[in-house]
């Protein structure tokens, strides 16, 4: 029986775990909290609580993995992903079929311009620099690893419903601040596909290919909730209201193409348009298997 190891089994990892279990895999999920362990066990995975900041998992566990899915975030500080560094060291030359969920933030701000996988990285925050570090370390340890650069992940339970219903303001994006998204069910399917197939490239933009403005997304969600569009504020007011992390996201604008992904993998998105994805998400948690 093949073994799939998932490091960082949150919402996306659960979807991968469910697919692996359904395929007859032995699945181990390394998680940080007891609540996450319970969720992983519910889909049929063996769950182990582990703190990657304390120590990496034992080499024997990593060596037993035929497939490795890494979706754990980097540490909160610094420019290096010490968690990924520990994993790469513990792999000790073992090279399982590997997929890493990175972030579109590695591209930095492009003023609304298009980015593809050949666009040089230009991280504008320490958070993004940690992701670049993780990508580099993983490709040195496992050159065949597939890196999926994901933008905003949305889905059931991952929508700003409370903020919209409360009438909280959003930044007026009249300056054409573009954002990109992927529904969590599409991301889970792509990750599972990545560790089961041989693709032509090692790096992909994991996005639905339908960039939109932030206000269009918020207005659409408000419409589907049957409430008024959120009020707009300018940047000066946003600096007074929003956290530094939220402002860092708002300061970047880019449009991501998924042409390479579609060409190489033949994947057909469940939700290529965010409106359909929002409708499905608001209906409740779908079966993740």
UniProtKB/TrEMBL annotation:
Gene3D superfamilies: NAD(P)-binding Rossmann-like Domain. GO terms for cellular component: cytoplasm. It comes from the Bacteria. InterPro entries: NAD(P)-bd_dom_sf, NAD(P)-dependent_oxidoreduct. One of its GO terms (molecular function) is aldehyde dehydrogenase (NAD+) activity. SUPFAM superfamilies: NAD(P)-binding Rossmann-fold domains (SSF51735). This is Oxidoreductase. It comes from Salinisphaera japonica YTM-1. The lineage of its organism: Bacteria, Pseudomonadati, Pseudomonadota, Gammaproteobacteria, Salinisphaerales.
